[in-house]
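TA notes, week 10

Several of you asked for a full example with nothing omitted. So below is the full record: structure tokens for the whole chain, then the designed sequence directly under it. When grading your own attempts, check the secondary structure regions first.
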């Protein structure tokens, strides 16, 4: 009976342990990534009352007589079956979908493992386990690339990162050119010039081809020279030749350094009368604009003597000279007064100092960009020519452009007899009554080495059955000078496939102020068809502008993708995953953390793919606790506990009966 008491006590104690485990499972029914546990029992050693005997000639064998001494907890096992994924919409949350695999987190040098993928970015961009701040481990990206072969490290997202621009090396054209395009008769021609003006052409349009130089000086000012005949670009990219050719000089602007200004000898006194200057100059001036026929105030010092010549004429002596004043008001000039006049500028001498020359047609030139021409005297209202030397360092390009009536043509608008309008090519001849195919207008966006976008028009026009021409007109597009390109292509009329002319180059010369790489060559590849239907030709390029960090996301492969303001994406890192030979052997450390133990095996760290692990982004793994199973186990455990308690009750009653036998 005493054995029964102690046996029942072991049953009560261990069923209580089982109830503790069940209680913990139910308590964590909603804990992210929680893995339920179960308790298994085993009996303890038995007391042998009589050992077993074997059979002999007289009697058969007998079994041993043993009395069990109770039970014990055999094991408390962790069930690593994966739970269901619950969507959260948070782009840093991850739910592991496989039984194997744990995330790796660190607190200093202490390494832990977890199924809780509730991650977040802290104020410094570290990817951490939410709530504990433990650093998530993986491999950080370098220049948009991740190497998962090295040691893991704390993952960090640089929210101040930028993506450097990529110059466009290739433009690809895809889509269809309509085989249905038909010619129509031209009824009107309109020329649009680069200066914003336009005119209607009567009869025929016949362009002239001339040279155009686009230059950039050291001051940052740009110059556009039409008809730059005789100009050239040397091997160092410097322009040599005429910058201003026979233009009428309207005014000179002094920009802070002294220039010498010359005046007409006849001036007007500030206090009246006509003043005859003994000399027209020069007079030193450091600022201001001096125009043709413009009056400029000039101070000739303090009056020291006034000698009358007549009642209205005087000889004025100052500390700067002697001047004759005619028709002056009586008493206007007195000793001790200042003597000033309004004089008309006739020329200026910069003496090599910076100044700006302004011309009658509205153009101007900063002599700081052509210092070789700065040391000279320039007469107002006179024809002026400025020539650049190699030493001036004017960067530039020279291209052929189309002109009409002496002005550079930007584009043509053709009115057809049916009332529609279409684009014409500035370098072609058109006449009223001529037939022309419609022009498809497309745009190729080309990025330079600093990420500036240049939208280059590419016109496509049918010229005959199965034959088309692609044209890029020369011009300045968003600061890039583009040379004219013409490419003939031909299709196989039996299948609509391109048969010739499938590629060409667009050349950009870049003298604009952002300092990007000069003379960029961009290849154009054509993957077009010619079928009946719509014209759908469109372009795409491999270049892009500079980008700044905008957002991040984590994929099912654990790769962290950074999105930038330019619409481009690149790898910012990759989350590591760990596997164990015996994950049930991991030691629970609280906070949904595990640590390796002697029976878990060493962590096998690698990528998701290498470890056969899949995850669901923007989701969390739910607990794998089966509530129905837990309640069933709770009932069984309760009954087991009750049965053991009955053993104690009955044994107590039996002992009480035994004791009462003595009475």
């Amino acid at each position: 009976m005493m054995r029964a008491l102690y046996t029942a006590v072991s049953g009560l104690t261990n069923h209580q342990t089982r109830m503790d485990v069940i209680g913990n499972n139910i308590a964590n029914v909603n804990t992210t990534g929680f893995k339920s546990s179960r308790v298994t029992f085993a009996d303890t050693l038995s007391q042998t009352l009589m050992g077993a005997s074997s059979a002999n000639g007289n009697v058969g064998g007998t079994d041993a007589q043993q009395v069990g001494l109770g039970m014990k907890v055999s094991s408390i096992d962790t069930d690593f079956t994966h739970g269901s994924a619950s969507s959260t919409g948070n782009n840093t949350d991850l739910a592991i979908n496989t039984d194997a695999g744990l995330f790796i987190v660190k607190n200093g040098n202490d390494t832990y493992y977890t199924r809780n993928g509730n991650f977040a970015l802290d104020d410094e961009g570290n990817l951490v386990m939410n709530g504990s701040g433990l650093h998530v481990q993986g491999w950080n990206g370098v220049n948009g690339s991740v190497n998962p072969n090295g040691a893991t490290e704390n993952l960090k997202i640089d929210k101040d990162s930028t993506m450097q621009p990529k110059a466009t090396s290739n433009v690809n054209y895809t889509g269809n050119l309509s085989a249905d395009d038909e010619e129509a008769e031209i009824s009107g021609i309109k020329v649009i010039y680069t200066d914003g003006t336009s005119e209607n052409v009567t009869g025929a349009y016949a362009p002239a081809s001339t040279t155009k130089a686009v230059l950039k000086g050291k001051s940052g000012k740009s110059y556009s020279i039409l008809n730059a005949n005789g100009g050239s670009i040397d091997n160092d990219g410097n322009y040599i030749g005429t910058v201003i050719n026979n233009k009428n000089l309207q005014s000179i602007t002094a920009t802070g350094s002294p220039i010498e200004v010359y005046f007409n000898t006849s001036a007007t006194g500030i206090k009246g009368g006509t003043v005859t200057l003994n000399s027209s100059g020069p007079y030193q001036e450091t600022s201001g604009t001096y125009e043709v026929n413009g009056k400029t105030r000039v101070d000739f010092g303090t009056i020291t003597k006034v000698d009358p010549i007549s009642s209205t004429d005087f000889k004025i002596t100052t500390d700067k000279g002697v001047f004759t004043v005619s028709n002056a008001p009586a008493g206007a000039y007195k000793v001790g007064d200042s003597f000033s006049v309004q004089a008309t500028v006739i020329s200026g001498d910069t003496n090599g100092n910076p100044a700006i020359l302004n011309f009658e047609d509205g153009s101007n030139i900063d002599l700081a960009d052509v210092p070789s021409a700065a040391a000279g005297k320039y007469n107002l209202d006179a024809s002026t020519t400025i020539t650049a030397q190699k030493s001036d360092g004017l960067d530039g390009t020279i291209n052929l452009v189309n002109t009409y009536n002496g002005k550079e043509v930007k584009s043509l608008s053709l009115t057809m007899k049916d009332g529609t309008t279409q684009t014409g090519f500035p370098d072609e001849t058109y006449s009223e009554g001529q037939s022309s195919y419609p022009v498809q207008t497309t745009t190729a966006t080309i990025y330079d080495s600093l990420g500036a976008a240049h939208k280059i028009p590419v016109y496509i026009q049918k010229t005959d059955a199965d034959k088309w021409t692609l044209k890029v007109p020369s011009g300045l597009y968003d600061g890039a000078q583009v040379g004219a390109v013409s490419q003939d292509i031909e299709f196989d009329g039996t299948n609509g496939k391109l048969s010739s002319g499938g590629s060409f180059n667009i050349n950009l010369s870049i003298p604009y102020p952002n300092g990007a790489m000069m003379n960029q060559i961009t290849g154009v590849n054509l993957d077009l068809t010619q079928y009946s239907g719509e014209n759908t030709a469109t372009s795409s390029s491999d270049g892009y502008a500079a980008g700044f960090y905008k957002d991040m996301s984590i994929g099912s492969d654990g790769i962290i993708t950074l999105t930038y303001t330019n619409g481009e994406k690149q790898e910012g890192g990759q989350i590591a995953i760990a596997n164990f030979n015996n994950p049930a052997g991991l030691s629970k450390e609280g906070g949904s953390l595990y640590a390796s133990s002697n029976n878990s095996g060493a962590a096998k760290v690698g990528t998701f793919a290498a470890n056969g692990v899949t995850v669901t982004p923007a989701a969390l793994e739910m607990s794998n606790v089966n509530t129905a199973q837990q309640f069933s186990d709770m009932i069984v455990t309760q009954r087991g506990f009750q049965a053991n308690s009955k053993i104690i009750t009955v044994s107590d009653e039996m002992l009480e009966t035994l004791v009462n036998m003595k009475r």
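The longest helix spans residues 627-660. Use that as a sanity check on your answer.
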